[in-house]
Design a protein that fits this description.
Length: 114
């Protein structure tokens, strides 16, 4: 989608530190990391928010979660615990309207999040 930052990173028009990609999912380092490991996992398909997910996207979200599990292991945060976060809407802190999972780890994580 034009003017979407994450579509730009997926297509290569905008520089991103991509750490994983397959036919449906791309993962890259967050530019402003909130933890020693902070990756963003996005579908190649432009979906703005969780509220825009359609019936036909259900398998895609299995792919995204499977990638999160693999990336947690590959980035050495699986044993100590890690978190996946999906902000939906500006009130929850969503600032980029291409759906993404945050994968955070490498430090103690408090609960509940702020
Ligand atoms: P959210 O606030 O949940 O929408 O998350 C958006 C995330 O995108 C934030 O953690 C930002 O630091 C991150 N971000 C913004 N611009 C870039 C970029 N060019 N490359 C990588 N991550 C980015
Ligand atoms: Zn997009």
């Amino acid at each position: 989608m034009a003017d979407c930052l994450f579509c730009g990173i997926i297509s290569g028009e905008i520089k991103g530190e991509i750490v994983y990609q397959d036919s449906s999912v791309v993962a890259f380092k967050d530019i402003n990391p909130k933890a020693p490991v902070h990756l963003l996992i996005v579908p190649r398909k432009h979906i703005a928010t969780l509220l825009d997910v359609e019936q036909g996207d259900k398998g895609l979200f299995g792919d995204i979660l499977f990638a999160a599990s693999k990336l947690a292991r590959d980035h050495g945060i699986s044993e100590d615990g890690f978190r996946v976060v999906l902000n939906c809407g500006a009130g929850a802190g969503q600032s980029v309207f291409h759906i993404h999972l945050h994968l955070l780890g490498g430090r103690a994580l408090r609960w509940p999040p702020g």
